[in-house]
Design a protein that fits this description.
This protein is mainly α. It has one domain. Helices cover 54% and strands 0% of the residues. The protein is globular, with a radius of gyration of 20 Å.
């Protein structure tokens, strides 16, 4: 399949209709919860909600202009290096979404472990609220970065269109789980990423840190030892909260924190470890400081 044919799929493929339907459903669900919370006087930080919506629109603007084609373009060389090409059928779409879900688990887990990746992912965790608009609170630059994790899918034979769209489905699935209004769901909580499971992931309680990375399936967490059930009341946000509703500050504060730490480093080795190393690592001559 040549480049023109792959590009055309983003406009002609039936799968894009399903992406649009999913998106419309999610937006409708978010608006419904906003009105429900307003008319039932449920506690909500409304400025925080406003910041989430602004961040979403900024991200959509950048996705449609500066960042939209970066992932696709960068994945093309790997596509042409791949020895095999997997055809697009109903079965391979199911396998592709499963592969994207597995990819998402490891991408998500690494974003919690390495400082440079946490810099953009922390945007999503920085709210002390938990409602459906949190699903809109995503880094405005992550689209220019996360394509890197799709490279293995491309090398085993999935084309860039199928890999990208499969990851979009994994992400869109997660909109409905960002709510306190849906209680525990029994056996579903043991198999899928559900509101109860994901509330744990957003918790800053010690027992909830670095748990439940799954996208659609929570089985990956069970397989790799990162699963945690919802037990004590969840305390949302970071262990050190940023206390701002400014969308730009929210989006870039962790990069600023990294730069401050880099300036304090006495060696280039320490500077590189601050940027690319473990999230919690600091040189011994630093004062203790938790970044999560």
């Amino acid at each position: 399949m040549n480049i023109q044919e792959i590009i055309a799929l983003f406009e002609t493929s039936e799968m894009m209709k399903y992406v649009s339907y999913f998106f419309i459903f999610n937006i409708t669900f978010i608006v419904f919860e906003i009105f429900l919370d307003f008319f039932t006087a449920k506690e909500r930080r409304w400025k925080d909600t406003g910041a989430n919506i602004i961040i979403f629109f900024l991200g959509q603007l950048l996705e449609k202009t500066a960042f939209g084609g970066i992932g696709f373009i960068c994945l093309l060389p790997f596509y042409y290096l791949a020895p095999l090409e997997i055809p697009m059928t109903g079965w391979t779409w199911a396998i592709s979404i499963l592969a994207a879900d597995f990819t998402y688990y490891w991408m998500h887990r690494l974003e919690h472990k390495h400082r440079i990746l946490w810099a953009h992912h922390s945007v999503h965790h920085s709210s002390e609220d938990y409602n459906l608009t949190i699903s809109m609170r995503l880094s405005i630059i992550e689209g220019a970065i996360e394509w890197i994790f799709l490279i293995p899918m491309i090398l085993i034979g999935f084309n860039p269109f199928q890999a990208i769209v499969s990851l979009i489905f994994v992400v869109q699935y997660q909109t409905w789980i960002h709510t306190e209004r849906i209680v525990k769901l029994g056996w579903l909580d043991e198999t899928f990423n559900t509101p109860s499971v994901h509330r744990v992931h957003h918790g800053s309680n010690d027992q909830y840190l670095d748990k439940n990375y799954g996208g659609i399936l929570i089985l990956w967490d069970k397989l790799f030892g990162t699963f945690q059930r919802e037990e004590e009341k969840v305390r949302y946000g970071l262990t050190k909260n940023i206390n701002t509703n400014n969308p730009i500050t929210i989006s870039f504060i962790e990069y600023k924190n990294i730069w401050k730490d880099v300036q304090q480093c006495s060696t280039w080795k320490d500077r590189l470890k601050i940027i690319f190393g473990n999230l919690l690592w600091k040189p011994k001559y630093f004062k203790n400081n938790n970044n999560k």
